[in-house]
Amino acid sequence: MPLPIPTVSNPVIVKVISPGDGKTYPTQNSFCTIHYTGKLIDNGQKTFDSSLPRKPFSFQVGKGQVIAGLDSGIESIALGGKGWIYIHHSYAYAEKSMPGPDMKNPEKNALPAFSSLKFKVKVLSVKD
Asked: What is the pLDDT of residues 79-100, one digit of tens each?
């Protein structure tokens, strides 16, 4: 099956792997806790960041605490569900390059400018 490629006209594509409870979805202003693994779409083997070796990641949906593509895409994956969120660079970091998450070695896993991304996510909790 070909890899979904987000475009300017369709910047966020969500592929649900596991539906979860099918009724409790993150919505604007809800608090969401997830595990995630982020990869470059151009080189799908390169993981640039993951919460799996750390604790789960929490954020408030729709408040700009995460990139726009993750903010909107997470609303399509229910509590307990897993999925891939494919994000066009315009909904990620756009023309900015980003250092990697390792502050001692920021060049490791750095993101080039105009990188389209994909995130494998599991929704662990949703609270209003």
From this structure: 999 999 999 999 999 888 887 7
pTM: 0.91
Residue numbers annotated as active site:
36, 48-49, 67, 93, 119
C-beta separation of 28 from 61 below 8 A: yes
DSSP string, the chain: -PPP---SSS-EEEEEEE-TTSS----TT-EEEEEEEEEESTTTT-EEEESTTS--EEEETTTTSS-HHHHHHGGGS-TT-EEEEEE-GGGTTTT--B--S-TTSTTTTPBPTT--EEEEEEEEEEE-
For tokens 């891939």, the residue is: 84
Cβ atoms of residues 60 and 30 within 8 Å = yes
